[in-house]
Hints:
Elements: H1 2-27, H2 31-59, H3 61-80, H4 85-113, H5 119-148, H6 151-171, H7 186-205, H8 209-229, H9 246-276, H10 281-288, H11 290-305, H12 311-329, H13 338-364, H14 372-401, H15 412-438, H16 444-450
Helix pairs in contact: 1-2, 1-4, 1-5, 1-6, 1-9, 1-10, 2-3, 2-4, 2-7, 2-14, 3-4, 3-6, 4-14, 5-10, 5-11, 5-13, 7-8, 7-14, 9-10, 9-12, 9-13, 9-14, 9-15, 11-13, 12-13, 12-15, 14-15
Amino acid sequence: MAISTAFINPFVGSAINVALPAIGSEFAADAVLMSWVAMSYLLVSAVLMVPFGRLADIYGRKKIYLTGITLFTLSNAFCAFSGSIHSLIAFRTFQGISSSMIFSTSMAILMSAFPGEGRGRALGLTVASTYTGLSAGPFAGGFMTQAFGWRSIFWFSFAVSLQAALLTYYGVKSERSESHGERFDYAGSAVFSLSMCLLLYGFTKLPTPAGFYIIAAGMLTGFVFIRIETVVDSPVLNVNIFKGNRQFALSNLAALIHYSATFGLTFLLSLYLQYNKGMAPRQAGAVLIAQPIMMAVFSPVIGKLSEKIEPMLLASAGIGLTGIGLFLFAAISADTSLNMIVLNLLMIGFGFALFSSPNINAVMSSVEKRYYGVASGILSTMRSTGQAMSMGISSMLIALYVGKQQIGPANLDKFLACSRTAFTIFAVLCLAGMFCSLARGKVHKQTVENK
Length: 451
């Protein structure tokens, strides 16, 4: 069950990245509008992770998870039937809602199933299935797009999601929640969602003045949210979880920075390979598969290592290695060899594997069991927010360099300059994330104290 859902969500995301030129061609969509196929999903996911995590803590994780996987299954069929770019974006938004229900609970269910020894290995296997989805997505998505059209990606996802829903219904036992009987904080959830919407949407509007105003409004709403959470009896987000818990706070911040620096890479490279290098979708997917293959191979091993070696050291080395790879991509040109691109992706993939499992272990091991749902939701929010910010940076730079027009021979140089600027920004973010990761301190000592 966990492996199926951990596989299919990233599979769809990475497969759609390769299919974007075909989608843009069918619907005559410009590059900025195409980016919203991914952005709409990420924005909604980030906004709803924490509220659904809290609902899972109160009403049961299986209920929220099963509802999410069922809706995700239906959303795939809706996306496959899309008749315009705008309807596809709308259905991807619906898919983001269902995804937030899945990922706000999946890690909490896993942590409850593996309370002690074996947790690192279980996390590693789950992360490996995620990266297997990322690995299969570019190549399989490119093949399906070329052979059957981009809609076949969603039909494949429909079949896998349906199987996961059935496995969840019949195979996962319901458990009594540690927060059973507590009231759900509707006001706090609404204000939190509004704040996240304003912050993330404002980010996509930068560098226009409207973007800065919307972000300022989001920050102000965020302060109101924090004030509400300090006075209600059953907050949707217990802000005390951050107080005095440097491990939890900095590990989540490291995750936010890491995903902000990495998610846009596949999007930009997919466009580069197909437009600048003239590759077919299947060929581009075969190149992009290098990064997630490394993640899938090494994540279980490194997850197990994180039980013995400090996650701080492993994760910091990983984000540093990723930053080096992004810095090398900042010099990409039309003449860059495919061998260099593949080798660099392999290095970034290994760095990603070094970071992910140990960082997840650090986050979830730093809180009490009754907060697993909220902690899982926060961590998933950091991931989705980081991914949305990464796409926001990419979209903003495309708008600045290329404008609202389809990418073609006349503006390939501008797109290349846009990509170099983006990779430079991503590399600098990784440097900041590495220092954040190092500052979190030791994990194993804190885990013992929590017990």
